[in-house]
Fold each of these.
Amino acid sequence: QVQLVESGGGLVQAGGSLRLTCAASGSISGTNLMGWYRQAPGKERDLVATITSGGSTNFGDSVKGRFTISRDNAKNTVYLRMNSLKPEDTAVYYCRVAGYYSGGFYRGSEVWGQGTQVTVSA
């Protein structure tokens, strides 16, 4: 069983910064794609950023230039550094893993975290 545990959310003023952390735990020895998505009230879940095991990144248009994503493969952990936060960044942020190694086999399925709330006040 693989679980994702997110941390680092909270309340911040506009222009501030936060760092989110997502650690994969359980019977996992490696991950493929790791990333962050967010969902604001009444809206669909959108891409924030993803990073492959090789370090290639992809960002949603609204966060380009403000957010960075990184990962520690040895710890199966992904980080999201959010700078210059805006009220419109307010959402629940979800961590996702797509593809991972467990029990000596590659699993092509995805795993989602429970989400962490980020609130940016004006």
Amino acid sequence: QVQLVESGGGSVQAGGSLRLSCLVSKFTNSHYSMAWFRQAPGKEREGVAGINGAGTTSYLGSVLGRFIISENNATNTLDLQMNSLKPEDTAIYSCAADSRPWVALRADEYTFWGQGTRVTVSS
């Protein structure tokens, strides 16, 4: 069973930055993928950024160039650096993981989920 615990959410003004972290219980091999999802009020959950054990990444078009997903093997964390934040980035952000090697930004591709952390961007 993989356990995920997010931290780092908060409130920031437009143009600011936040860094989210997800503490992940370790996979026993490199065949895994992890991702960040978000869900804004009244909207469907959407995949923001994903990464696999080989370091391949994928991003939602609207965050490309602003958000960076990375994995820290020393601390077993999945991080999301969010820069140039916009009010439309306001959402509950959740990390997810699954034991397969390809990167995906579809929620139904992931088995394990964290509880979520709130990000609020004011204009």
Amino acid sequence: QVQLVESGGGLVQAGGSLRLACVVSASFITISTMAWYRQAPGKQRDLVARQSSGGSTDYADSVKGRFTLSRDNVKNTVYLQMNSLKPEDTAVYYCNVIGASDSRFPTVRRSYWGQGTQVTVSS
């Protein structure tokens, strides 16, 4: 069973930094994408950063130059380094992995989500 567990959220002042971590509990046969999303109160869940299987990473315009997605394959962990935080970055942040994890169906990809971690940036 695949589980994604996020950590690292919290309260920080504007201009500060946080590093989110997402530990993936199972081994994937193939991973298509690993990503971070966020959802502010009353708003839809939006993509923050996404890394493809080829290693290229895309960022939302609002976080370019401030956020960095990275991964540690040994630790099965995806990180989101967030610098120069702004009050508008306040949201619940979710980790997402799309991949195949069932050896019985190696070509079937599913989307997996973590439970989310709250990030609050005060002005």
Amino acid sequence: QVHLVQSGGGLVQPGGSLSLSCAVSGRTFSGGVVAWFRQPPGKEREYVACIRSGGHTYYDDSVKGRFTMSRDNAKITSYLQMNSLKLEDTAVYYCAVGNVILSQIRRSESYNTWGQGTQVTVSS
């Protein structure tokens, strides 16, 4: 069974940077998709980015050019580097994994394992 443990996040001023990590434990997860979602206060969970096993990344337009997702060579940890943060990036961020086809990567229902969530607050 796969378990995800998130770390990182916190409080930052607009324009600042934060990073998140998502460590996979239980077994090596090398063949699927790792994704990040976020849930802003009072809103639904929304897709942020994902990375497929071959390393291709796909970003929501709202974070494209500011966020960078990566995964390490052993494919046991995924990272989300967030730069030029905006007030609207404030949310609880979740990582998720699953064997997801490309057309379904933006749907939270496609992922079967989730991290515990971590708060990211952008505030002046």
